[in-house]
């Protein structure tokens, strides 16, 4: 499907501002980057990435960061225009011009989650997935374990089914946990857990406490490797701990030293 481009109004100024942000990302110092971001807003107040940069590098609180991300969203909406959203929903991110808006909205969703405002955070994630069901930003990998953590299993199941062919650890272990929460230690849950263990056997030791999580997260990962397991457990451990009996069940079916199975359930 061919996509329609946004109006050319203010395009040149916005492009110049975006070029300044590209420079900011490569700046030799934070001070230089911040100065470039502020200059970008002087050139075009519709430069969403400038607000994203300032939120990430100058905000001193969640409130201040959220205000800047919200301004970034509003800037992106102005730059794209209402008609653009109506005509291109479902194809965002594939259109380069949408990416500053998408970055601002995803960043706000993350900030809201960290501030304990899960309801608002989830609403942003769902809308981003509606605009870009291909999920180039990988937002589903954050949303799924967080829905489980908050006890929103029906929504988690709906999200899982939308990407049910996904073979990432977060997808497979989340499905196993959802099946256990729904029916306990039954054939369905065991089958899901078996599939998860096959794809990434590194998850149980971290969930059960046989291995400690580092305070710093890996910068990269590969399918089925230990770094993928660490990233999953960092995000999903609360959901497992909140699920009565889930960790004991995992310990009974995973090849983990016995001392690990004494972790919290």
Which CATH C-level class of the largest domain is it? Answer: Mainly Alpha
Shape: elongated
| Domains (count) | 2
| Contiguous helical run count | 14
Structure report:
It is a single chain. With 265 residues, the chain is mainly α. It folds into 2 domains: 130 residues, Tetratricopeptide repeat domain (Serine Threonine Protein Phosphatase 5, Tetratricopeptide repeat, Alpha Horseshoe), CATH 1.25.40; 115 residues, no CATH class. The chain has 14 helices and no strands. Helix 6 runs antiparallel to helix 7 and helix 8 packs parallel to helix 13. The longest helix is centred in the N-terminal third of the chain and has 19 residues. It is elongated. It starts with 10 loop residues before the first helix and ends in a 12-residue tail after the last helix. The C terminus is likely disordered.
Keywords:
Serine Threonine Protein Phosphatase 5, Tetratricopeptide repeat, disordered C terminus, 265 residues, single chain, mainly alpha
What's the helix and strand layout?
Elements: H1 11-25, H2 30-43, H3 48-58, H4 62-80, H5 82-88, H6 99-114, H7 118-131, H8 140-149, H9 153-162, H10 169-183, H11 187-199, H12 203-208, H13 226-242, H14 246-253
């Amino acid at each position: 499907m061919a996509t329609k481009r946004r109006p050319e109004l203010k395009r040149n100024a916005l492009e110049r501002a975006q070029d300044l942000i590209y420079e900011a990302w490569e700046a030799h110092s934070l001070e230089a980057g911040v100065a470039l971001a502020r200059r970008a807003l002087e050139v075009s107040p519709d430069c969403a990435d400038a607000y994203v940069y300032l939120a990430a590098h100058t905000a001193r609180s969640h409130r201040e960061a959220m205000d800047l991300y919200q301004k970034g969203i509003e800037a992106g909406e102005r730059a794209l225009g209402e008609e653009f959203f109506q005509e291109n929903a479902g194809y965002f991110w594939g259109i380069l011009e949408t990416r500053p808006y998408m970055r601002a909205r995803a960043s706000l969703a993350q900030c809201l989650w960290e501030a304990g405002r899960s309801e608002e955070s989830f609403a942003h994630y769902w809308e981003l997935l509606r605009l870009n069901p291909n999920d180039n930003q990988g937002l589903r990998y954050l949303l799924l374990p967080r829905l489980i953590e908050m006890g929103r299993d029906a929504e988690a199941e709906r999200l899982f089914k939308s990407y049910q062919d996904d073979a990432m650890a977060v997808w497979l272990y989340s499905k196993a946990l959802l099946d256990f929460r729904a029916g306990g230690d039954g054939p369905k849950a065991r089958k899901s857990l078996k599939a998860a263990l096959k794809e990434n056997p590194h998850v149980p030791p971290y969930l059960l406490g046989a291995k400690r999580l580092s305070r710093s997260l890996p910068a990269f990962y590969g399918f089925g490797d230990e770094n993928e397991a660490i990233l999953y457990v960092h995000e999903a451990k609360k959901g497992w701990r909140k699920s009565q009996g889930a960790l004991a069940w995992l310990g009974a079916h995973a090849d983990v030293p016995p001392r690990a199975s004494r972790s919290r359930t």
